[in-house]
Write a structure and sequence with these properties.
Length: 335
């Protein structure tokens, strides 16, 4: 699949994540012969990214930056392998994620603990370390960096690419190590998971389903709402989601995200207040999320999600339920 031109010098690259289309995307930005790649997905996506560079009539040597919105492996798992093919590129990452890109052992251990060795290799291949001298760790001035105090971080949070400026914004809520990218030239926000999830297949007339990613373990509803507002204040022409593609109805998506956050917090508090704990809490929250999907689908098209659609949404519903369970347990046990 050829790169999809979304705006002047901005292209979507399909990653075929989990062997499917329309789940996870990466982006190329080209200006005056310089390239930036936003997100890498997993090692399996690296050939598609390199092919996309060639499809634009460019060479790997022209890639100046590989930018990660955060270090979750569906966004960053292929970074080490990709950087081996890009001799002149710097990896740009939130300062909180820097050490894990240089030494990914803890990331690898965490995945193996959940999925096992065989599944880890099937999903991600081998996650490779990146030379620390090629990693640009981004931070923000004191008081605007979610508490990051990394001595290796730079407070320079703009990047020059050709004649355009890419600005990086601290964006907690989904994860503390999250940032989004704003291309001043096209007024496009590359949001990672900081402005929700919205798959094109769930579009009905003028309505396109959107919901936040509340996955474990750093979901913070207040920070998520603040990040959404930060995006809105930029008045972007479009928001480019990793999951998935271009959003032009930014206000409509924002309204859906706020409603989902309100629902998520209220539901988690309700179930916790009813006495659900540990192994009982997660399945109740999963059931609540499924029921909300059902209500939204019926409201916009008159019928609930099909079995195939439920299967497509399973991973998101599962991770969101896990994240809400972790959030409400932490909120009620921390002092």
């Amino acid at each position: 699949m050829k790169p999809l031109n979304l705006a002047e010098g901005v292209y979507l690259v399909e990653t075929h994540y989990l062997g499917q289309e329309g789940i996870a995307s990466c982006y190329l930005i080209e200006d005056n012969g310089q390239l930036a790649i936003v997100e890498t997905n997993t090692n399996h996506a690296v050939p598609f990214l390199l092919e996309a560079v060639k499809d634009l009539g460019c060479e790997p040597e022209q890639v100046k930056y590989v930018i990660l919105t955060h270090i979750h492996l569906d966004h960053a798992g292929g970074a080490g392998l990709l950087m081996q093919h890009l001799p002149n590129a710097q990896l740009v990452v939130h300062a909180r994620g820097r050490k894990h890109m240089i030494d990914p052992e803890k990331l690898i251990e965490g995945v193996k603990a959940v999925y096992g060795e065989e599944k880890y290799r099937e999903l991600y291949g081998e996650i490779l370390p990146i030379d620390k001298n090629r990693v640009l760790a981004v931070s923000w001035p004191e008081g605007n960096d979610s508490g990051n105090t990394s001595p290796v971080a730079t407070t320079v949070n703009t990047l020059a690419l050709g004649n355009r400026t890419l600005e990086l914004f601290d964006s907690p809520g989904h994860a503390k190590h999250h940032m989004f990218v704003f291309d001043h030239f096209t007024r496009s926000v590359f949001s990672g998971d900081a402005f929700g999830i919205s798959y094109p297949r769930f579009t009905y007339g003028n309505f396109r389903l959107a919901f936040p990613s509340t996955s474990p373990v750093q979901f913070d509803p207040t920070e998520a709402l603040n990040t959404y507002q930060k995006v809105m204040e930029l008045e972007p022409s479009r928001v480019l989601l990793t999951h998935y593609g271009s959003i032009e109805d930014v206000t409509g998506i924002h309204n859906q995200l706020k409603e989902w956050i309100d629902f998520s917090v209220a539901t988690a508090e309700k179930r916790y207040g009813e006495g659900y704990r540990e192994k009982e809490l997660y399945p109740m929250l999963y059931k609540d999320i499924e029921e909300r999907f059902d209500r939204v689908f019926r409201a916009v098209r008159g019928s609930g999600p099909t079995a195939e659609e439920k299967e497509f949404l399973f991973l998101d519903a599962d991770l969101n339920a896990q994240g809400l369970a972790h959030y409400i347990n932490k909120a009620n046990t921390s002092s």
